[in-house]
Amino acid sequence: MNQSWTQRQRPERLERRIEFTDYQDTRNFLDKLNTLSQNRERFPDISFGRTYVNLTLHVKDNMSSLDSLDHDFAQQIDDLL
Amino acid sequence: MNQSWTQRQRPERLERRIEFTDYQDTRNFLDKLNTLSQNRERFPDISFGRTYVNLTLHVKDNMSSLDSLDHDFAQQIDDLL
Q1: Which chain A residues touch B34 with a CB distance below 8 Å?
Q2: How many CB atoms lie within 10 A of CB A61?
Q3: Number of domains in chain A
Q4: Has the ipTM of the complex gone over 0.85?
Q5: Dihedral sign from CA coordinates of A41, A1, A34, B21
Q6: In chain B, which residues have their Cβ closer than 8 Å to the Cβ of A55?
Q7: Is the residue at A1 inside a domain?
Q8: B46 in a structural domain
């Protein structure tokens, strides 16, 4: 998992902000993330504008804390870049 | 403009939250909004998860307050539903 992810508490989660040069780059990333989310049935909270995306990975519904699967998913998101 | 938009101050903006029944409905709406945003060259701040979308329309770069164009854009977004 890339260092640019930040692990926060209360609630435990992973956060990352990614900046893009233009809206098309932002869209290309979001489209790839959409495919990954559907394949993994994992849907991060995403906020975006024209040239940025903020991602938040919450603990999975049936879990009480983050685990290696979450860190793997974060790595897979990094690999989209 | 549909009543479900809320006008807030400091900074002046329009906000709306839309709930969807499943991820596919959320994606369909976001794809239509993407087309509208590109056509209008207006890019709201968007945050979404599996079954919700939060929209924030900020005052346009060269303006100091919201105007009828912003309210029209909000109405066009409502029309996508």
Answers
A1: 27
A2: 5
A3: 1
A4: no
A5: positive
A6: none
A7: no
A8: yes
